[in-house]
Amino acid sequence: MEKLITLLRSFAPLSAELKDHLYDIVTDRVFKKRTKIQEPGQVCRHIWFIESGIIRIYHLDEKGREKTDWLLKAGDLFIATDSFFSGKPSMYYIEALEDTKVWGTSHDKLQNAILRFPEFCVHQILIDSHYRNLKDDRHNILDPMSSKERLKWFFQTEPYLAKRVPAAIIYSYLGFTASSLRKRFAAGNREGK
User: Fold this and answer.
1) Where residue 29 sits, what CATH number does that domain have?
2) Residue 161 DSSP SS3
3) Which of 12, 70, 71, 112 is most deeply packed, by most CB within 10 A?
């Protein structure tokens, strides 16, 4: 829980009263490996902070292929972004890729905390902005890159994930399809690489 408090303080100050209230409304949980925390059609009703483990957020494209949108590790927060604040059913799957310890609270308790402690609204806005910027930054960085550059970027920026996430999920996260990988490796083999 202290790691979550530290993260929240990195966005904006927390009063002692708000900190005490968070201890009252945030609880811990462990999601076992391969647990589906969220499935499409469900409304996301909880926000979670990862203390240990890895979470994947993904959706199915029009051909039914898995497309990984997020790979999240210790120190990250996660929700189904299309559902948590709107109350609408989500299109995302959220899955634990390994046993994952989290701290979380419900949407209702979070909203009540914001009403009771208006200072907490600043945290919500800054956290939402931070994660939107991370997603935009990833697309702005990766979109113009070649396949080789994307792989290099991932292994340099996410060595922790590179060692613990299956290759197929990493490729999905980087925007590769099975056919694009086959073409890449076939071309490499023809060139003697």
Assistant:
1) 2.60.120.10
2) helix
3) 71
